[in-house]
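**User:** My hope is that you can spare some time for a protein that puzzles me. I have put the entry right below:
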Amino acid sequence: MSSLLYRLGLSSFHRPWIAISAWALVLGVLGAVIAVGGVQLTSNLSIDGTPSQDVLDTLADELPDAARGQGSFILTAEDGSSVAEPERVEVIMDVVESVYGTEHVVGSVEEAQQPFVEQLEALMSQAAALPAAEQAAYLAQIQQQADAQIQQQIDDYGFAPLIVDGLPIPQVLISEDKSAALFQFALDQQVQSMGSADIEKIIAAGEAYDGEAGLTVLPGESLKFALPALGAAEIVGVLIAAVVLVLVLGSFLAGALPLVTGIVSVGVGVGIAIASAAGEPINLMTPILAVMIGLAVGIDYSLFIVNRQRNLIRVQQLTAREATGRAVGSAGSSVVFAGLTVVVALVGLAAVGVSMLTAMALVAAGTVAVAVLVALTLLPAVLGLVGERVVSVKARATGATADQHHRIARGWSGFIVKRRWLVLLGTTVIIVLAALPATNMTLGMPTGGNSSPDSSARQSYDAVGDSFGAGFNGPLIAVAEAEAGSNFDEEQITEITTRISDADGVRLAQLIGTSDDNATVAFMVIPETGPGDERTAHLVDELRETAVDGSGDGATLGVTGLTAVMIDMTEKMAEVFPIYIAIIVILSMIILLFAFRSVLLPILATGGFVLSILATLGLTTLVFQDGWLGGLFNVEPGTPLVPVIPIIGTGILYGLAMDYQVFLSSSMRDHFLQGESPQQAIVNGFSATSRVVVAAAIIMASVFAGFIFSPETMIAQIGFTLAIGVLIDAFLVRMTLIPAAFAILGRATWWAPRWLQRILPDLDIEGHKLEQQPDGRMHSELSAQEPSR
């Protein structure tokens, strides 16, 4: 492998504009395709095969109207006074008309009022048929009955419809104290399946009246959506990475190269994902994950190669041309292997059978693959343009005598080797303590109630809960299906409605639709508790177990809605997580066995990763769920972990952990194969490589940490998980725990039976073949092509 990559590196170095033009062309084509097709992001997190998704599929076939999504706006008076005052009612109606005028919002005020208009016309006709002396009394009686019905609704539920010009507006509810109005409307599809641009238009239509007549207009929980745009925190993370690059590589010019190639990697990887969607909505987490992982590994992979090239120039006094070929052949081999582990770990997510995760993982894996290609082709091409300027004359002059083994690294590795048992036990105790909070980890979808108090999402959530009840933040849809060949009659439908209403935790249940053959019936269910409450999850389970009699033993009652979807997702992720951990362990063993031709090293490295992911989840739980240092990270205590966090974090962190393991272990093995004692090989190998691994870990953690302060809780949790996971695995596991274990095992670290060594291929990730033939034919053939500088 090293010889092949050596040739590739020299080819790109000699013909830089070919590689640069090729990548520029790829970026240009992707940009053009995206410009034509546009970008549509969606928050859809549904999982095929779950009970809630099955019910949604049934509704889409049998009752399309009931399968629609719902949106809402909450309107409150800034001074706590009544929203029913005439000028405020006028603003409320303006909001209603404006929202109904946007795309994807179904119906109109006139359509909703039509049954009441027809009823009123019938009553007026009846009144007109009476003697004149009796008409006034008759109409007064009708009005009294209407007032009594409204008062009964207020007494029963604490709200009533808004009355305008004698007619109710069914979509607008007024709280009992008239301090708030809740406007609910239907959409032509589920909210989580809609594109971000469409949701923004609906929100803008309502918020256009915010502040008029002293009313505050806030979108409801179901319209909560966040764009994955880069903010100041993300940019700061990249700037920190840039500073680290300059410090490690010793010059602004060298430090800029990995940053440029990292950005190109992200641009191409994310561009391919968006362009392949052909304008169709893609989950907003898909490009975010690709940006996170692509930028981090894109910078790090280029850093490893540039650092190796500069060391070869300074220490061995090679030309920039030869050093580039050697760096791509040796460090590039490790990059290929490290990238492969990340790709395999991400692609392995497809094995759990969740299409949403598969799509995210494949896009992220594709971006990592692009980062490897960029590091092996575009980077040496740019180095070809830079030439000898990559190392200053002063650095070249002093480099041959400089001690490349950092004093701190040598001291730390020497301490680990000398106090190996103490280091092993002490580090293990620290990691275990960090992992303990994970035993109380709660998975669930954060709601507006978990947002910061000054956010619009939290204010909307609280306003709805205070005025109408927390259940209005997460309505459920219950669907009764008759046995095949049967249907429900009116009496049975009434009985089902009663059973649902009587269920513990139900505040309101009403019929919202029946199929043409009455075989499928849908109900809107408002729980007494909010979408993130455990009692709501218990209610979902209870409703699904509710018996449906009178239409055959095969009749069932299913539950869906955004809250039920999140509950099912949590259960599904908890179910597949152990399976994925097993897949990761097996893959890790195989990959490291091929890389180092050792039996014990894969066991140690994999065991270390299991410890690091448990500690990572423990600290994530401590911060987000328990609220430890919550003020620093703008986190509200009690926030559950998004169900996809453990499995996505495991996949990405595994790949990154193996990156560091490959670079450190290959350096140690190289020194061991050169005849050094096992302990001395640990010290020298660690000292030679740890500086760049430390820089790579800091860079990755900085990039990931930039996403921690995102207003979207899911993005913040993923950013924190990856950032803290990289730091734990790099500093506690790869550079402390594992070297201590190596020191204890001694020569056994690198042992494998002879029969196994004969079977396993020699991948030469250390680049020994290049060092054995420094003047071989592979580069003498290309020497004539080297342009004069």
Summary: The chain is about 65% helix and 10% strand. The first strand starts at residue 41 and ends at 42. The domain at 476-560 is CATH 3.30.70 (Alpha-Beta Plaits). The chain has three domains: 2-42+228-445+566-776, 65-223, 476-560.
